[in-house]
Amino acid sequence: MSSGTRIAVAVLLVAVAGPAGFFTYRALLSRHLLPESKERQLTAELAGSSRPSAAVPAPALAPGSAAPAPAVSQAPETPEKAIPEQLPDIAFPDRQGSPRKLSDWRGRPLLVNFWATWCEPCRREIPLLESLLRSGGADRLQIVGIAVDDRDPVLKYASAMKIDYPVLIGGTDGGLKAIDTFGMAEVLPFSVFADGKGRILTVKVGELHLDEVHLILARLQDVESGRLTLPAAREQITAGLKTLAVQRAKDSASAAPTDKS
What we know:
By secondary structure, this protein is α/β, with parallel strands linked by helices.
């Protein structure tokens, strides 16, 4: 089986098995992720210490559901935490050093993206987040990045990549505590989508893709306008993301070269 086919099968495992397939996918894909050439030098400079594990694409999780098991094994009696219904009002300094809280953006739909400079999938999805700001397609959507990383590398990377949306710098310890507050395991990236009232619509674990963002934002707008209830929107997102993941797996399998041996 070729490497491309293995990756496609991994995506299918995620779509079908949910969080259980997450770790199968991660094990299969981890060796095949390569940084973009433009980022190789930054990657070498910014890496250099032990960090939480970077996640690969996985299904969205509804509030109230348990997060994926942590990358580091836990004692059997440790319960899995549930994702909260409301955005925790965490606070961190922004790039100028001013403290900001997530509630500062209450009243607008919110995409909270947890990331780090050393995380390849995190870096890959930043241009997509930037394109949402430039396109105007995400009406009223506010994007906030929360860096689970130290201040100096975050400032350097944000400047190099010209990140326009607000970035809050949690540091490693503060960032990990914030991840725990959201009921998530220590994996990156993940993105939290909430409505203007601060109610969490879904949490997408792993790198965001454009079709996934369109699906989630469409349901978010339905909730904001009153066309859908929050539970109905969550169900449609879960079903829709599985469908997209299966189709992506099929497309990858079709495009993957076959082994000649």
